Amino acid sequence: MAGKLYIVCTPIGNLEDITLRALRILKEADLIAAEDTRVTRKLLSHYDIHTPTTAYHQHSKGRKAAQIADLLQEGKNVALVSDAGTPGISDPGHELIADCIERGIDVVFAPGANAIVMALVVSGLPTTHFAFDGFPPRKDSERRAFFQSLRAEGRTIVLYESPLRLVSFLRAAMEELGDRRAAVLREATKVFEEVFRGRISDAIERFIARKPRGEVTVVIEGCGVEEQLERQPSSVEDRLRELIDQGLSQRDAVRQVAADLRIPHREAYAAMLRVSGRSPRGV
After folding, report:
1. Cβ contacts of 112 within 8 Å, gap of 6 or more
2. Domains of the chain by residue range
3. 116-227 architecture in CATH?
């Protein structure tokens, strides 16, 4: 009988923020697949857990995912953890989870700490609807295009960013989205936790004066209804042309339009056929 893959949430800073169930699973598992075994070992040592660990990160995911899935099919129980928070969100855990689902292996989720939800709640911005977009691109041109694609997003926007790029990130956001309300959560649950709330311009001033350190989550106000109507392209084709002019490939433009306008992929694909006047390559 195949084993089970346990998705175990770990603390995002404070080691007390782990559930009793998570501790039990980590103790009883045959193996722990960790993003960084050195980071995970600190948590395990704190709770006197001696389960063997193996590295599973973005540089080892392909073949390693298959190896872990093989162990599961042999009957071993594996706990998947990231350095902090929820595995599978902006990390390679998704590939292993998808592989296990395809093989018919049980995937069990043990919920816990999550920086996305924490930042959203403490931001004071609307929480009824929100969009999480992971880490924005690093290159200036791609980052500008990224924020341009969010101009008409009415939901509260949650993003991750490196403290080293936070100021340039905020400047790009202000340039493309305007001076919206925002919150920056830094060092969540740790001794020097900070939640900065204000306008994007206020955040820029704040983090120029005092360079940020530690993990950063940024929450940005969505645009209002009037701004959505003002910014929304008059047609799917207009939006495709706009994205292509910004340098996106036809494939990426189709995906982006489908997401932005919340339309089926096939509808965006058909619009690309009309825009290009021929079958688009690689769409």
Report:
1. 8, 9, 10, 11, 17, 18, 19, 22, 85, 86
2. 4-113, 116-227, 233-276
3. 2-Layer Sandwich (3.30)
Q: Which CATH class is domain 4-113?
A: alpha beta
CA distance linking residue 236 with residue 238, whole number of Å? 5
Cβ pair 272, 241 in contact under 8 A = no
Instruction: Pull the structure tokens for residue 92.
Output: 């390679």
CA distances to 34, 75, 264, 280 from 234, rounded to whole Å, are: 47, 55, 18, 22
Cα–Cα distance between 262 and 141 in angstroms, integer?
24
Q: Which two tokens stand for residue 230?
A: 């003002």
| Residue 45 three-state SS | helix
How far apart CA 260 and CA 233 sit, in angstroms, is: 11
- Record the pTM: 0.75
pLDDT digits (tens, 9 = 90+) for 219-229: 999 986 445 54
The CA-atom distances, in angstroms, between 157 and each of 79, 87, 105, 260 are 30, 21, 34, 13
**Per-residue pLDDT tens for 159-183?**
999 999 999 999 999 999 999 999 9
